[in-house]
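User: Predict the structure for this protein chain, please.
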Amino acid sequence: MAALLCAAAGMAQADTYTLPADLTSAPFNCTGSGNSYSCHGSIGLDKDSIIQLTSDVTLNIDGNLTADKSLSTSNNGHSLTLYIGGSANFKKETTLTADLTVGGSISFDKDATVNGDITTGGNMTMAKDSTVYGDVVVGGYLDMGKDSDIIGTCRAAATNYTCSAVPSGIHHLRIEHAGTALTCSPATITVRACSAADNNGCTASTAGISGTVRASSGGSVLASTAFNIPAGVSTATITLPVTSATATTLSAAGMTPTPSNATTCWVGATQSCTLTFADSGFFIDVPDHISDTTASGTVKAARKDDASSACVPAFTGAKAVPLSCQYVNPGTGTKSLTLTGSSTATMACNGTPSPINLSFDTNGVAPLQVRYPDAGQIGLDAHYVAGALDMQGSDQFIVAPKDFAVNAAVSNIYVAGSPFALQIIARNNSGATTLNFGKESTPATAILSRTRCEPSANGTHGETPQDGTLSTGTPNNAVSMNSGVAFVTTTEWTEVGKIIVKADHTNYLGSALSVTGTVNNSAGCASPIGPFVPHHFSTTVTDAYPANPSTDPTTAFTYSGQPMVLLVAAKNGHDATTQNYYLANSGSSFAKDVTLTALLNPTPAPGSLLPSPILAKDFAGGVATANASYTFTNIKTAPTAVTIRANDANASSQSGIEGIAHVRSGRLRVSNVFGSARQALKIPVQAEYWTGQAWILNVNDTGAPATQIKPSSVALSFTSSTSSPSFSGSTITGPTIVLSGGKAEIPLSAPTVGTGYIDFAINLGTTAADNSCLATHPATVGNVRTWLRSTYSTCVLSDPYARATFGIYTPAQKSVIHVREVY
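Assistant: Here is the predicted structure, written as structure tokens:
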């Protein structure tokens, strides 16, 4: 026997938790919705626990996390992210696929396998034969046991383990320059940290790097300037002075950390490390500006003064200066650049120069107007040759779209948590599409956000409007653009109401220019998207009588006509409750009256469902709770499963979860009793239900919700068997009678005077008079259980009644001549 018991114990099933569905119950007891939950306090998991994911889950745990041996996860392609405020401890044989961030310390017993990154502010201990497939950052001491390993990078304040080096994340350094400069003024150099090979520009790295940029000629370093790109940014601008006219080669040295690839140099879209310094040339200055607007720039003719080496005007007056342009980022384009000095020229940016008449003042400065109808970075070059005079100069500037047009698909309604379509267009000042927006080396995107417009007021139950979540299914809601246009078909908002969708792009190509736009060009909430309505409803039924393990563990039930708890919840497309589905104190409301319908299964059993509808005012935070009942038309109706469906004008529980009520036609039955006038009688009472063939004892009417009978609800009508003395004195006293297993006995005391019979009825109603077929109806206190009234003989929906007779005996009692107890 002992062996059998041990074997049975060994076969106990493991605890399996399905996330996120089980997060709101023990042992997690978290709050939240969608993919993100907050767990207050500590969490402990028993041995052999299994965590199954049905979607991505992020847990924020305030306290500690402990797991007994053999914890495992079944991710099903989903991610699990744990933020643990305290410490974490995992017993042996843990197999975990998750990213963990722990405020305190973390420990794993032997034979642990972790697939994911670990960051801990305290110590980390991994016992022998354990492996982490991911990156590890430890604020304290990293203690790795025998034959344990980290397949990834690691950093720790101290450790007994040899960590792999953390890569810098910098592929190479990129030096951008004008190609020409003057000996009388330092050259401006832009240094960029890149995370990948150059491809129509630099893919930014924000890992941080420092070093020195040098200008060399003939093997000698003519000038050098230190640079520092701190972590979090990707560029730095420096100046490099060379005072002698010569061609120099730019390079970088002393870099920390060391990039994994060689430095590159670029002049616009041309790769070149040659920066030529001359004693004369042009300073061109065109400001960053909005597409298809006129930007006012300058061209300054300068030379080095022989005496002071300072820059002085090279010439004044009218000059025809050949100017050319090039597409820098992106490196191609289709739109032309218009330049206006004293004359105007429109040119394709292919490097072919066009002479522009410029008028230089006494300072050697000529005004130049620039207009470009597309977006991107443009390079502008000047090259003037007159006899021995050979002057060059260049500049680069950013041209950004004016705004975004955000257009929503036209619809009478939108569904919460379900995709709807948006079109995003990057436009210039004239409203035309900027075709190059999105073609940059790091493609520019539009970041979508939302502003809730309605509901704007609190609800009648004290609810506050919820902003919900706008999602495009992309990181940070960044939308990729194709030739200046994005068609987004995956946008979702999780709530009901109305919103404004906004598109933003800040600091275009590193400039101070930002692009923004709202749906329908709405100012404030003038033209919102909506209304958003629930995707579906769910109905949840709690039968009046739960399943009784001691009698029938599969059967919960409710009597026909008996109140049961019905919960109706408005849901979005992810089955989360739409909390804005409520009646607002003012302004627009998005809750509606919800109609309830009974669906009968497996066979039709006519009846009526109450209430219907549930009113809009009954919803609080998207949920309404009602005392519902289903009453059979025919009392003699077999037990029926009744599915309850909820519908408003837009949504139905048909596509959600629908609760089922298990309805039985019940009655309370009492029997006639008789006996000695000197002894109390016990009146048998039992709850019954109709099986479809007969009335049988309802053994499930028991426990906490069992039918109760108040003594004051029993009406007693006395009839004497003799004219004198009068029959009286019999009463029902004591506590409330509670059925157990469907049965009980009502104690009726012996009369104090005379003999006779008592007609009695149990008042199941709400008034002082019972509803039985007895001739008299003494005042009683209603028992409020009308659903147990039934039809007895010709009495329809009658209270149960019967007769108790004092002074008559059974044949067995009459045969006793004398009874005496002898002591």
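Residues 559 and 754 are 41 Å apart (CA to CA).
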